[in-house]
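Support request, please re-run this one:
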Amino acid sequence: MTTLLETLLEEGFATVAKAEQSTRRQAVFPENKEMIKVAIGMRRSGKTTLLYQTIHTLLSQGAEYSQILLINFEDDRLLPMSAQEMGKLIDDFYQLYPENHQRECYLFLDEVQNVPDWHVVVRRFFDSKNVQIYLTGSSATLLSKEINTRLRGRSLAREVLPYDFREYLSAHQQTLPGKPFGKAAFDILHHHLLQYFATGGFPGVQHLPQDEWREVLQSYVDTVILKDIMERHQIKNISLLRYLTLALLKNAAARFSVNKFYNDLKSQGYRVNKDTIYQYVTYIEDSFLIFQVPHYSASERLKQTQPKKIYAIDYGLLNAISHPLTKDHGRALENLVYLDLRRQGKTVYYYASQQGYEIDFVTVAPDGTRELIQVTWDMSDPQTAEREQRALAAGQAELGLDGRIITVQDYLRALV
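Re-run finished. Output below.
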């Protein structure tokens, strides 16, 4: 195992060196040394690059290569791996560099959920060694169902999403214009924003030809369905799972009714119960393909009975799995704003007024501050302006909260 470990370290550090030139991610690990750091997110969203960039920062601050262990638990040479074998691999690292027993080390364990009972090993080394531990995982359950309980409240998690629009611009060597924000600046950013909607923010597709990026994004969805959902949860009805996944992605920035979907399935001859559909939706959300936003209400019953709104982890996935006849830029902008709000750590709801007007977002900041946000592509049409303002006014009156409308001009202007 020691020979393989040295090979893994050699290959890993060579990759770290190459990643030095990659687009710098906005997400960073917490600095608290008393906690295990965790990065979670969908496959190919950039978690491993975040590990590499963190390692590069440590090396630039004076850490030695011999203090750093980097293991990717999706490496075929390590699969399948038991918790005992995982522990032996880390023990071999300390045997390879005996001086590490007396100094601080850094363990970077990528896609650790592939090892059953991984938490037992992680806790042992965290409790017995002077060590900083960094984990990544591709399932939300790694956070919600495993991290909080199995690491006994001793972890801090960061969600890693595909590139936001700023990161997208950086990946394409585009700089933000300075002020004043005039027509030329708007036109340039507007052009790149439409390209961003089309391609999406997954790092691995940014410089691929159109026919290739579509195929790659489709493969991302297929891999999540097969590896993170079907295999993990032992699902047999793959056709239903795939149909539901594509339906949810295509429903981005809109309410999704399980009852309506269930009736649609019945009309097509599917035999399935509603509980199965609800469970599958949860699995799909756990894989980070989609996010569900509940209705804003003090009543938990109303939150559960009202349809939830769906947002996609990346709008490029919609273009990869479908060929819409028209481009719905307003829908794409709403999806983008939702992801930005999520990155800011805000809890997000939608609201339907008593008159039936929909407010896109009710946000709750970490400090408890609440705000209403309405998203529309363009307010130049009087009917559009009247509709959006009427809905926002209704929400403000019923909830007693301040609100604002975000247009594409507002969004781009806020970047500079």
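The chain has a mean pLDDT of 93. The chain has two domains: 2-160, 167-413.
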